[in-house]
Amino acid sequence: MTTLKERLQELMQEHDLNTQQQLADFAGVSKGLVNQWFNGITGLGSKPLLQLGKKTNFSAEWLAHGTGPKYKEAATVQKIRPIESNVSAVGQIVGWSDDTPPDPEEFALVPFYKDVALSAGTGTVGEEDYNGFKLAFAKSTLRKCGVQEGKAVCVNVSGDSMEPVLPDGATVAVDTGSRHIKDGQMYAIRHGELLRVKILRKNANGTVRIISFNAEAYPEETGALGEEVDIIGRVFASMVLYP
């Protein structure tokens, strides 16, 4: 997975930005904040992500975390390669019927806790009542993401604190085998009695910073790891439907 610095350097190269000051002007932020991005001190906030999303063809999820498609859909993807179908373009998740199950040699069936919501807001109390829904992931995709079969689950997201990366109603895939915090990545957590999806950063005193993309509406929080905060797993994929 690329670092934020590497992703920003790609953005700068594509848009003829030669200095950190030029990138700062382009993103509408201070040069000092850009320097923090490059040194891994802080991640992209919601305002810079929105600004860069308007001015570039990079996807917000890729800019923020290095996951998901690098470019937005439609015209930008067309420049990279011709699209034959949605399945071949995405190549990760498929639907199926009882009569035509996916090939077990190629796909792993991941439990989808459709009635469990990970809050991207003030919190949702979860009831882990698995109802039999499953999503099919290509086994090659799980291997690429470093996820073991049997360790992945999918859940819905509710609320707007993780916009624009995770809008209300998005589905996230969680690697329950990955509970070691890598600063700046998204995790599904149990915060008290609430299930939430947030960006995490470790503090030296055993606490963890709980961060939202929509930082203006949802200020940063702090919780004691293992006491107030338990890690369910790392978010390694997200899906958004537009019915």
Query: What is the approximate shape?
Result: globular
What about the largest sheet? 11 strands, mixed
Secondary structure class reads: alpha+beta
Unreliable runs: 74-94, 122-127
Which SSEs are present, and which pair or pack?
Blueprint (H helix, E strand, L loop, with lengths): L3 H11 L5 H8 L3 H8 L7 H10 L4 H6 L9 H6 L5 H5 L2 E2 L12 E13 L4 E2 L8 E5 H6 L7 E7 L12 E5 L10 E6 L2 E9 L4 E5 L9 E4 L4 E11 L4
Parallel strand pairs: 2-5
Antiparallel strand pairs: 1-4, 2-4, 3-8, 5-6, 6-11, 7-8, 7-11, 8-9, 9-10
Helix pairs in contact: 2-3
Description of the structure:
This protein has two domains: 77 residues, lambda repressor-like DNA-binding domains (434 Repressor (Amino-terminal Domain)), CATH 1.10.260; 147 residues, Umud Fragment, subunit A (Ribbon). 25% of the residues lie in helices and 28% in strands. It contains eight helices and eleven strands. Strand 8 and strand 9 form a beta hairpin. Helix 2 packs across helix 3. The longest helix has 11 residues. It is globular. The two termini are 31 Å apart. About 11% of the residues have low confidence.
Key traits:
single chain; 243 residues; alpha+beta; 434 Repressor (Amino-terminal Domain); Umud Fragment, subunit A; 11-stranded mixed beta sheet; 8 helices; 11 strands; globular
